[in-house]
Amino acid sequence: MNEAQVRFNIFDFKFTPYNRSSKSKDSLTILKEAIQHINDEKTQKQKAIVIDRHDNRQDSESRKLFVSSAAYILKDKVFKCRIALIRDHKIPTLVNRTTYTLTPFDELGNKAIAETTNFYIDMSGKIPVVCCEFNSNGPRILDIEYYFRYITSFNMLKISKACKASLHMDNSVSNVLESITDVLKFRIKTKPNRLSYLYQEVEDPFITNMNALANTVSPNSLKVEASFREIGNGSNQTKNLPALSFIKRVLSAIKEDSNVTEEFDDFYLEYEGEGGVEDTFHLLRGKKELVVCCSYKSPGNYNSKELYENAKIQFSQYIQELTSDKT
Questions:
Q1: CA dist., res. 214 & res. 216, Å (int)
Q2: Pseudo-torsion of CA 210, 211, 212, 215, nearest 10°?
Q3: DSSP string for 110-126
Q4: Is the whole-model pTM more than 0.85?
Q5: What is the CA angle 234-240-245, rounded to 5?
Q6: Neighbours of 281 (CB within 10 A)
Q7: CA torsion 13→14→18→20, rounded to 10°?
Q8: 181-200 pLDDT, tens per residue?
């Protein structure tokens, strides 16, 4: 059986304690309390904490999440975790590997199909750093953020007033914001039903015009590409200040709230930086990524122990590089 190649992304997990606890709690202690609560519910009450991320969204399918395991590996100072997404709406079918006939799941009873995502939390620094598997069908980084925000907030433990997952990027949004002096080209793709939220976050008339365009023909998705000059042609023309203002607003919104990232199906930028240096930025492809190989335990199921051991090597090396860069 061939080895699997599993992609992981990295993010900082930052919690803001309530004012009354600001001196005694930080991101590490808040996260530890949240995981302890999850494990207590499982061991003492034999049940998981299930949270629906779409509970307050009208006309949206439910997105029920629960952490199925969270074990602390003392020698590594890492929490080894797994989060599950219950698939109530799109149920797969079974396939016979010999005849390739399909059999539907007609009777699941009290069982359900779930997609799982592995994530590992390094607790050795001042802020928890998370190595999270990318699973296109399962829980994602913003699901993890929402889940722990809910548990630590006034809804449950009342120990945190804010929670943010800050992605590590090969070329960070902050770096682009600090250096960009002109826009050469940009490409944006999103769903029309996301444009209202994007306008609230970005507050630029370009988003309003995209929404008006979508309302005329009701497409499933909308892609806008604007080109001002090609890379390498030199800066012989005046800067496009409206385009520069718009892109800066988008980047600032992404920097302030990582949820904005999820609203784009594509965001690509060619820009000129300080000193006339030309560069590119791709929001969805610019995330820091670790690619980890592991064997399958059974068809479609990773060997989770091997996956952790192999991921730990790259993750530990990355944490060491971060630490050395800060010293």
A1: 5
A2: 120
A3: T--EEEEEEEEEE-SSS
A4: no
A5: 130
A6: 22
A7: 110
A8: 999 999 999 999 889 889 99
